[in-house]
Design a protein that fits this description.
Layout: H1 8-14, H2 19-23, E1 27-28, E2 31-34, E3 38-40, E4 43-51, E5 56-63, E6 69-75, E7 78-81, H3 90-107, H4 116-119, E8 135-136, E9 139-143, E10 149-150, E11 155-163, E12 168-175, E13 180-187, E14 190-192, H5 212-231
Antiparallel strand pairs: 1-2, 2-4, 3-4, 4-5, 5-6, 6-7, 8-9, 9-11, 10-11, 11-12, 12-13, 13-14
Length: 234
């Protein structure tokens, strides 16, 4: 099979005749197929499966930058490529995607049984989860420790509070390579390197968070004040 040698415009124009595009299932579980294609920057969206009420989607894209056909997972304000399903050959991508679709869409909901690196934390029975408010300061608990979401670079998102309309977010991740928990933030859809006040990571130079008991202490001290700080209008 040859590497893609057509322009983005040529690929987009040929979509209606592509067998994959014609035979994608109209619905998979709660996800509805949208065949509308669009170009944004270096990406051509070929089609997408969306569950708008759940703030989840799977986009099928062609990247002009890398020359790849690849699914992109979108969960709330998070987005990452499912690189294990990429191909630079449209025929190979089309051959493998139909069988992979159910697994890809199911993965958007997180994992009740995370990988072995996380198993020692027993997050499914972590008592602290019961203390987490479902809503606070305009945020909703979107991802719970009960079902961590596999993310990028060895990380799992174990906690996510989001205000989708404002583009504000507080999330806590565990990275298996570094064996530590850490927090990340967004304000108006823009990632923040640190939170000036009430940063769950602690002040600069603080020791990394290695155990759940230490994470509990940071959350007790900082979670609600941090959400209030993020919700504050600039």
């Amino acid at each position: 099979m040859a590497k893609e040698d057509r322009s983005v415009e040529e690929i987009q124009a040929a979509l209606p005749a592509w067998e994959l595009w014609q035979h994608l299932p109209e619905r998979v579980g709660s996800y509805i197929l949208r065949r509308e294609s669009s170009v944004k920057g270096l990406e051509l969206t070929l089609a997408s499966y969306e569950d708008a009420a759940a703030h989840r989607a799977l986009r099928l894209i062609y990247s002009r930058e890398t020359g790849d056909y690849v699914p992109v997972k979108e969960v709330g304000l998070h987005s990452c490529r499912a690189d294990e399903y990429f191909s630079r050959e449209p025929e190979v991508f089309a051959a493998g995607l139909p069988a992979a679709l159910p697994k890809l869409l199911a993965s958007l909901n997180g994992q009740e049984a995370p990988n072995c690196e996380m198993r020692r934390f027993a997050l499914s029975s972590w008592a602290y989860t019961e203390k987490l408010p479902l809503k606070a300061e305009g945020f909703e608990l979107f991802i719970s420790p009960r079902k961590p979401l596999p993310y990028i670079n060895g990380s799992h998102i174990i906690l996510d509070y989001s205000d989708f309309a404002a583009g504000d977010q507080l999330c806590v991740l565990y990275n298996s390579f570094r064996d530590e928990f850490f927090a990340e933030y967004r304000k108006n859809f823009v990632p923040l390197a640190v939170l000036p006040r009430y940063d769950i990571n602690g002040p600069e130079g603080s020791p990394p968070i290695k155990e759940l008991k230490d994470l509990e202490q940071r959350l007790d001290e900082c979670l609600l004040p941090a959400l209030k700080e993020l919700a504050r209008k600039i």
